[in-house]
Specification:
This protein is 48% helix and 12% strand. It is mainly alpha-helical. The chain has a 3-stranded antiparallel β-sheet with strand order 1-3-2.
């Protein structure tokens, strides 16, 4: 895996984030953080959050139509969608479009559940499914996923939206 962060982007990161990145890249153990807020055991790094139908409805409310369409893809199947399908849905070819989509969804989810530690994420990446280009420099395809409860909740919201149309 290769991680590239341009100098300007690196400077925008908080000092805490820079320290964490250096520690991880140097293989050092991270010092435990002290936090004034109580940790939520339902939240974990790289573990997608389970949406309830009510929370899914709130999450979808007010989103751009393209974002709703992408979330609906997760609802249609077993919660797993190929990167290529998410891009093709809106005619995109640049992976950054999905980074924007994920960012919007993640920020709204964290706001809705009051995630002060910024751990919550809705969408995960199946690392074993990653398909690389022949030269090994860029990702060609792979699988994004949400949890089964989230897929069911999104399906319920999508069903209600279709019923109103």
């Amino acid at each position: 895996m290769q991680l590239v962060i341009e100098a300007a982007d690196y400077r925008r990161l908080s000092q805490e984030t820079r320290d964490e990145l250096r520690a991880v890249l140097e293989g050092r153990a991270l010092e435990p953080r002290t936090s004034k807020s109580k940790s939520n055991p339902a939240l974990g790094w790289r573990r997608p959050f389970d949406l309830t139908p009510d929370l899914a409805r709130k999450l979808v409310h007010g989103l751009e139509e393209d974002h709703v369409k992408r979330l609906t893809l997760f609802a249609k199947g077993d919660g797993r969608v190929a990167l290529s399908k998410l891009l093709a849905l809106t005619g995109e070819t640049d992976l950054r479009a999905l980074s924007h989509f994920e960012g919007v969804i993640t920020r709204k989810l964290r706001r809705l559940i009051g995630d002060e530690e910024k751990k919550a994420t809705l969408i995960g990446w199946d690392y074993d499914s990653t398909q690389w280009s022949g030269d090994g420099w860029r990702i060609v395809d792979g699988i994004y996923y949400v949890t089964e409860p989230t897929a069911r909740s999104l399906a319920a919201v999508a069903g209600r939206r279709r019923a109103r149309v």
